[in-house]
Every structure is written in structure tokens, then in C-alpha cells.
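[Meeting: bench + compute handoff]

Bench side (C.D.) handed over the final construct sequence. Compute side (W.E.) agreed to return the predicted structure before the next meeting so the bench team could plan truncations. Sequence as handed over:
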Amino acid sequence: MTQSVSQRRKVCVVVNSRANYGRIKSVMRAVKNHPRLELQLIVGASALLARFGNVQESIAADGFRAMATVHSIVEGETPTTMAKSTGLAILELATQFENLKPDVVVTVADRFETMATAVAASYMNIALAHTQGGEVTGNIDESVRHAVTKLAHIHFPATLRAADFLVRMGENPDTVHFTGCPAIDLVAETDLTLPPDIFSRYRGVGADLDPSKPYLVVLQHPVTTEYGQGFAQVNETLQAVASLKMQTAWLWPNVDAGSDDVSKGLRMYRERHNPDWLHMYRNFGPEDYARLINSAACVVGNSSSGLREGAYLGVPTVNVGSRQQGREHGPNLVTVGYHAAEIAAAIRSQIAHGRYPSSHLFGDGNAGVRIADHLATAKFRIQKRLSYT
């Protein structure tokens, strides 16, 4: 017998960025389709901003209805504005949680908006579910991820090592459920055939790209703990890619502190050189992004997608710098420093190697359903205790 809406457990998912959406979409769908759950969706932060791809439009096109929107980004992309954006998001999310009265709030990974979600929910005695906890990386993300872990009441780690780390951090083993990463669900279920119009459909600026010929995908975000160095760092990557003269789809950086430095480097290079091999994009939909990197000769930069979705797909990946330092990865990835010659050599080597075997390190494509089932049956204890043994 189907339960009435009033009897279902209300699960509030907060989507704050393009990457955030790709890593929670399968959970949203599983919750929406679950007979014992009711999906509440809040869209906020950079997911509402056109210059970061206007993810809100993709969410609506996928059939999800936002029950609330939260504008919380303070312009400037500095450490100060990042902290202020977090504070503003806490204020706004607290109001929305009070209005929606969810039974459980789901937050994703390690961004500063994730911290705001966790603080607001936990102070309001709302059960907090956290995906992708227990992982190790560089950047401020490392600190945010573990802070959210200590606020969360139920955990859905993406790897077995991450699950072990959560327990060793003092989380009750009964609240830690290894599910895999929801991002892998989209990759596993998507027809990865590259649409012939993929490069023209998403517009952007730059040279025309031919999907039938080899291409690179580059995505390099600022590293907040190396604030002020983004301009020099992205220029090293630009020099490396330019030396290869291979057509390149380059995605715009995220909203983290230092984004303006990275963006400035990209704009100046394009305006000075007008390269016939480079096209810059704001965003691709989650499924099209999977198709894009699946057909790429190599993925370059410091996005976790190269080591997460890239591992499942077996796509050659060159990780640049310290942003993913210490994170688990499959055999498809090599890490280099911020040196143009080193980056270029690594790209050439990875292209020459070609595809790698698929790795299921981050999941098998069924994380969303597993997470929804746990959310439907979990018994939450709001008062947390350390459980070291």
C-alpha cells in the first residue's frame, strides 16, 4: 500500500554548484521515486548564477522542482567573501529549513556551502546525512569535509577506505554505510555516445571544435590554501596545453576564493593569443559532461572528476598541483606540479598510453538507490557521541 505524502520521511537535498548537482542527482531521483520518502529541493549559491553555468536550468529540465532558492554568494572570490558567503548561507538556509521542516537534510562532499548546510541543520536538531565523507585531499576542502563529518548523523562514504576513516574518526559504525559515489550512477547509466553537436550546443567562446578529432578537457579550480597563486598556476597549464596544439574544451573555474585569478589568466590568454585550438565553456550538463570526458584523449587540471568518474571510465588524467593531494585514485591518473614542461610531458605520456581498465574504486553505479533505502529506514540519534573503542 502506497503511503500518503504526510506519512513519508521528508528528505531535503541542498544543491549549491554544478559539481554538487552531478554528485547528488541520482540520490534526488531515488528519493523522489521511493515510496517512503518525499523529496524537498533547495537550490542555492553558484547553482543560481549564470556565469557558473546556471545549474538551476538543468535541474528544472531534468524534472526536479525547487521548493526554495537561496542566494548567498558574496562577490569577490576572496577568502573573506568565501567566509561571508558561508555565514549568509547559514542565515538563509535556517529560514528555509524552518519553513520546510525536513526530517533529514542531505549535504554533499566538502564545499563551503556544504559547511553552511551542516551548521544550519545540526543547530536546528535536524538529522544530517553526508555523502563523500572520510576522503583525504588538499585545499580547505579537507578541513570542511571532516568538520561536516562531526556534525552529520548518517554517513554515505564513496570508498571502503573512507568508511574506515570515518569510524576511526569516532563515528558510530552503525551510522556509516559504504554506498559508493552517486556521481558514478550517472556515468554507469548514461549512453556515452558523444553527440555531434555537443561543442556547439553549449556555446561558450573560442575556436570551433570537432568532436570527431582528438581533444583535451581541462578544468582547473583555484586552491584556496594557495590563494594569490592561481594566476601563475593556470598560466603554467595554459603553456603546457598550448605546446600540444590539440583542440581543447576548457571549463570555467568554480566560485572558490582565487577564482578571479584563474579566470583572469584564461581571459588574458584568449584575448592576447586568440588560439585556434581553444574553446571555453561555463558548464555541461552532468550526462553530457560524462560523455565529454569519456571521449577525451586526456582530462587535465585539478577537478576530482578526473579521478572519480575518470577512474570508472578509464580516461587518461593528468592531475595538476595539490588540490587532490592524498585522495584515492585509480590507475588512470598521474599527478604533476605547476610546471608547464612537466604538465605537457605527462599529457603526452597519458595520450600515448590510451584508455585504462575501468576501476570501481568509487562505486558500481547503484549508490543513489542504496542511499535512499538507508534514508527511509535509518533511526537518527540527534545527540551524537564519540564512539572510539
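W.E. noted at the follow-up: The first helix runs from residue 18 to 22. C.D. will use this when planning the next construct.
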